[in-house]
Amino acid sequence: MRSIAIVTDSSAALPADFFAEATVSGGLAQVDLPVSIAGQPLEGLSSAEIDAAIVTAHVQGEQVTTSGASPGELIEVYERLASEGYAGIISIHLSGALSGTCDAARVAADLVQLPVAVIDSENLAMALGQVVINLYRFTENTDDLETAVEVAEDLCAAVKLFFFIPTLDALKRGGRVAPALAMVAQMFQIRPVATVLDGKLIYLERPRTTPKAIERLTELTLDFSAEQAKGSHRFAAGVPAPTGRVVAVHYCGNLLQAQEFQRSLGEPAEDAELLPLPPVLSAHSGLGALAAVVY
User: Fold this and answer.
1) How many CA atoms within 13 Å lie on the side-chain side of 44?
2) Confidence class of residue 279 from pLDDT cuts 50, 70 and 90?
3) Pair 87, 150 in one domain
4) Domain ends where: 133, 156, 179?
5) Is residue 23 domain-shared with residue 164, that is, in the same domain?
6) Are residues 152 and 208 in the same domain?
7) PANTHER family, alphabetically (predicted)?
């Protein structure tokens, strides 16, 4: 039996088949990050129903908001894993610059008996999910928590997310961007292409049309893919080295566009998972978002 459990959050966009496999095998827990529309929490709904509700809210211009996990929720998860016999936990979450979940995890870690190492992935979506997948598989064969933490940090540094959002309206409604900035973007028809650097959203390009934005997103993704394929990373035994593959393509209400984007990336994206952005992220991206994750 594995001795180290992994805890993450629903921003990780974990593929359904992996999540099902890990649920059966044990040693993985995920806390949900709540989403509300016009102040009403989306509770008791399936993932498909939540996705549909968020798409509808964006179409109708309703405010979609999110919140992080609470220390109490995380304490419950940590204590449950301790009762199941795990000797240590790595609790790894979306960027602390974008959510208070890491802070909540640190508070919770101080209030339980077993050792909990909290890691800020400084990323989100499958850029976090890919780390979780590789870390989960690595910890199946080790009981060394310190080494596992080092591996997690190396994995976080090796994965990259690039994304495009067609408008800042959803970010403005959710309070994640200043209204003045959103207005300027609308006036000049800016279609931001961005990445995550040191946990923060960094705009790399500001194209004026969607085709140009997707073209730049494609170029940036393939440039990083080629650089990653050179194999500069050296990891512990049992950890798959980065190869520059596009491991995931994300979308929000634009599946056909995402499929075309995946085709445009060519061979590096042939095996990529095609995944909707998780609700806690699509709440802020708005309709038409595209993202690529390279490892």
Assistant:
1) 1
2) very high
3) yes
4) 156
5) no
6) no
7) DEGV DOMAIN-CONTAINING PROTEIN DR_1986-RELATED, FATTY ACID-BINDING PROTEIN TM_1468
Q: Residue 128 belongs to what domain range?
A: 4-33+68-156
Q: What digits encode the pLDDT tens for the residues 226-266?
A: 999 988 777 878 888 999 999 999 999 999 999 999 999 99
The total number of structural domains in the chain stands at 2
273 inside domain: yes
Q: Name the average pLDDT for the chain.
A: 90
pTM of the model: 0.90
pLDDT at residue 169, rounded to an integer? 57
3-state secondary structure the chain: CCCEEEEEEHHHCCCHHHHHHHHHHCCEEEECCCEEECCEECCCCCHHHHHHHHHHHHHHCCCEEECCCCHHHHHHHHHHHHHCCCCEEEEEECCCCCCCHHHHHHHHHCCCCCCEEEEECCCCCHHHHHHHHHHHHHHHHCCCHHHHHHHHHHHHHHCEEEEECCCCHHHHHCCCCCHHHHHHHHHCCCCCEEEEECCEEEEEECCCCHHHHHHHHHHHHHHHHHHHCCCCCCCCCCCCCCCCCEEEEEECCCHHHHHHHHHHHCHHHCCCEEEECCHHHHHHHCCCCEEEEEC
Of 118, 136, 156, the one marking the end of a domain is 156
Q: How far apart are CA 291 and CA 116, in angstroms?
A: 31
Q: How confident is the model at residue 56, as a pLDDT?
A: 87
Per-residue model confidence (pLDDT) at position 285: 85
Q: Is 189 left (phi over 0), alpha (psi -120 to 50) or beta?
A: left
32-42 in b/e burial notation, b at 16+ Cβ within 10 A?
A: ebbbbbeeeeb
Please determine, for residue 40, whether its predicted confidence score (pLDDT) is greater than 80.
yes
Q: Are residues 146 and 198 in the same domain?
A: no
Same domain membership, residue 181 and residue 141: no
Task: Quote the pLDDT of residue 273.
Answer: 97
